[in-house]
């Protein structure tokens, strides 16, 4: 099941989006739950991220049992460990900041949440492949190398 929410710095609007997300995910019977959003709660951008999203989104992800959270915004690739309540937990979600294939890059920083991050000034894209009930995530450089 895929859900998509926007981003905001408005707490009331974010509350409404998260209520919608709860209903959307709870009404799905799909095993895999994936969330897509623009700004990540765990970020690779050295200037920091959206504190409101970091405060409010992960508890809802944990509550709903969301498996993967894809985001962008930071222009640097990063993939967290499985996180629940902000700490490594095998029952938690993986958060992926997708990087960029454009010309704008940031030097990635690791706040301790990331298992993998890329601080090269190179384009990266991420694919999600499904086969026989399994999901495979592959991040590739713009030239196709892994």
TrEMBL record:
SUPFAM superfamilies with a match to the protein in the record: Metallo-dependent phosphatases (SSF56300)
Domain Calcineurin-like phosphoesterase: 11-77
Gene Ontology MF terms in the entry: acid phosphatase activity
UniProt keyword Signal, yes or no: yes
Keyword line: Signal
UniProt keyword Signal present: yes
UniProt protein name: Calcineurin-like phosphoesterase domain-containing protein
């Amino acid at each position: 099941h895929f859900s998509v929410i926007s981003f905001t710095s408005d707490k009331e609007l974010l509350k409404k989006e998260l209520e919608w997300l709860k209903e959307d995910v709870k009404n799905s019977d799909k095993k895999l739950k994936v969330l897509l959003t623009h700004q990540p709660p765990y970020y690779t951008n050295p200037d920091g991220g959206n504190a409101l999203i970091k405060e409010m989104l992960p508890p809802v992800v944990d509550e709903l049992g969301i498996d993967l959270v894809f985001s962008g915004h930071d222009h640097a690739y990063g993939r967290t460990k499985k996180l629940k309540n902000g700490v490594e937990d095998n029952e938690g979600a993986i958060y992926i900041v997708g990087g960029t294939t454009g010309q704008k890059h940031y030097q990635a920083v690791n706040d301790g949440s990331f298992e993998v991050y890329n601080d090269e000034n190179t384009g990266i894209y991420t694919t999600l492949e499904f086969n026989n009930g399994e999901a495979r995530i592959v991040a590739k450089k713009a030239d196709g190398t892994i």
